[in-house]
Amino acid sequence: MYDLKKIVVVIGATGTQGGYVVQELLKHPEYHVRAVTRDPRKPSAKALASSVELVQANLNDLPSLKMAFAGAHAIFAYTDFFDTPLTTNEVFKESETLEFNQGMNLALAAAATSSLEHYIWSSTPDATEQSAGKHPNICFFNSKSRVTCAIRTKMPALWAKTTEIWIGFMYENFIKFATFSPQPTPSGVYELAVPLAPDSVLGSVHCKDLGPFFDFILRSGTRYHAKTIGLVAEELPESRRLEIWGHAVDKPVRFNAITPAEYVARLEGFGVPTAAAEGFTDLYGLFKDLGNAYSGEDVLQARDLVPGGFFRSWKDYCHEEDWAAFLKA
């Protein structure tokens, strides 16, 4: 019987963020994990079926989310701007509206859940506001921050039990996206060409640490309700991050600080639509200007809330990751 357990709903349970949250929750018998997926027939969903309550829901379908949230005590909610392949400028721009609508559906369904005690919303800063309009093209930040604004101003009862988490630049992006990773040159040197100064820092975190931190927030009760937390493990200069990676994989590396225009052209060479290329370039501009963009007035820092050694370092990640496929690409 799970009626004595806390029902925790996890959105995107077969994805990266939700997947690590599910992994952590399953270590603790006091939780009943309800994993939400669009397609329970896919192999990754079937693999979860024996250990969680698997339910089908779609972020574009508010009634399905209300059903999935019924009886929930806590919800981990997030949206994925990049769920739709960014094949054209139009798709990139439409994805901002789509993600905003999905985030609003999640919030509306959560607000309608009478049993809900804690809503944990994986979001991002308002990049346009942070940069005073200098970097307006970071659609994949703006869409989420607009949802947060709506929760704060239009759903005060939900905001009163919401913890907003700004998840830092994930270590895994280094291997997942060519736009953020070093590329081999004919000389065998791996070059990271980005519009940053060598000493520009990125507030970053290992995605695997999201699960334990989510559990920490749940166990903290109401302490972090109506709060925003920056989930950042390290603030390393980007050139230093590259050096650590090169040492871990035993490859020569070079940091190349290019201009924003050069970076846009570089991404277009990868087949990235111009609008998306400008968005990624503005993201680096935000990092260059602010350093840890996952901070600000009234924003708590996760590192200040947990014991030392809670988070994995970039060096740890570099030595744990299997780089074979990346180096062969």
TrEMBL record:
Assigned keywords, A-Z: NADP
A Pfam entry, by short name: NmrA
Gene Ontology annotations for the cellular component aspect, listed alphabetically: nucleus
Domain NmrA-like: 5-294
Keyword field contains NADP: yes
Top-rank lineage group of the source organism: Eukaryota
Family that this chain belongs to: Belongs to the NmrA-type oxidoreductase family.
Name of the molecule in the record: NmrA-like domain-containing protein
Organism of provenance: Mycena rosella (Pink bonnet)
